[in-house]
Amino acid sequence: MEKVGKYELVREIGRGATSIVYLGSDPFTQRAVAVKVAFPGILKDSRRGRLYTHLFLNEAALIGKLSHPHVVQTYDAVVDDHLCYIVMEYVAGGTLETACSAGRLLPVERVVEIIFKCSRALDFAFRAGITHRDIKPANILFASTNPNDDDIKISDFGAAIIGSPDHTLVLGIGSPAYMSPQQVKDQALDHQTDIYSLGVVMYQLLTGQLPFQARNSYDLIYQIINAEPRRPSALRKDIPASLDAIVARAMSKKLESRYTSWTEFSHDLAQVFRSNRFNLPADQMADFEKFDTLRSFTFFADFSDVEIWEVVRFSQWSRVSPGTVIITDGIAGDCFYFLAEGELKVLKNGLILDLLTSGECFGEMAVIGKTLSRRGADIIALTDAQLVKVTGSALQDSSESCRMHFYQSFLAVLSARLTSANVRLVSF
């Protein structure tokens, strides 16, 4: 079996203008990896060698810097005059290109979820000082081969700007169809160029075609700078006007009219999903809607996006009707809850002690102590309610940073309850 460095190459899985990507195996970690190997002598190209070197060094510089569930991880790299390769996380699901043709379009709600996850991943990169600069369907991967799984991972940061906004080495990088007006005009770029490009990807996923159809690259660049595309809903009838507005704002030619932050972009995606619901049953929530719900809670204010996604994955979401007993006084517990929607009452010996509203945590004493504790009150639904359940075992299996933030927030909750209790005692 052929090897590159310590990595065994199993088979070719992709090929581009400058490199071949292989499915590889890391003999030390026993995990599958993707190994991108530059064509021999590519960095010595007399005309483009500096650009190719820049691309490989850019990816090499990201080792350990972008640890996010929706970004392909870079594990290792070698860049020298004789051998250049990048070792990355292997992602099996293929690219979003498979969902960009008219006969293979995804349901609208799945497109919204995919774009939301992309927006949060690119916001994470932006906060790390990184602008991708080559967002397109070929650089966004489905994390799984399961056709119903909408988890994605953004790949290929070779063209990225790392650090301050820049315009160096822009020409020749990226795919013209997805470039912002600022990029095709060789202007200084920041995260708003990625916002534009993701808007183009969203347009293509929704409609099966690019926003601008051109005979040649000169015509395409002219349209990007001067023309307005047709509304997505004019090409697909089940697209609501609110999504037309999001795509239009993301793709605005003027920076002052385009989304100025990823937070604004992802917020609007979540809002349009909630307002339309896309005919989904009320108890079915997309991952990104769960993320947005948790992010709105004060309890999770100090959690990173990565930790919020972690909670989305190990929490259990459900709906209950009025009168449902959620916690019974005196019964041993091994989980705690958040109230996402509705209202609950807390009772002791039949007397109401408190009312719980959206965003509040309860039942955490069952997992804070070293031994299994018994519940200290009854908690019953007053209205239709949505609950987020976290088991003690899931909390213990979570990452150290996530678990630390849970305990810090538990302390804040307990402190607030003690303060409230003291105020009530003083008032008697």
TrEMBL record:
Stretches of the chain forming a coiled coil according to its record: none
Binding site for ATP: 36
Keyword Nucleotide-binding: yes
Source domain of life: Bacteria
GO cellular component: autophagosome; cytosol; membrane; phagophore assembly site
Lineage: Bacteria, Pseudomonadati, Pseudomonadota, Betaproteobacteria, Candidatus Accumulibacter
Protein name (record): Protein kinase
GO molecular function, one term: ATP binding
Residue ranges of domain Protein kinase in the record: 7-270
Pfam families documented for this protein: cNMP_binding, Pkinase
Entry-linked SUPFAM superfamilies: cAMP-binding domain-like (SSF51206), Protein kinase-like (PK-like) (SSF56112)
Cyclic nucleotide-binding domain boundaries: 299-396
Keywords: ATP-binding, cGMP, cGMP-binding, Kinase, Nucleotide-binding, Transferase
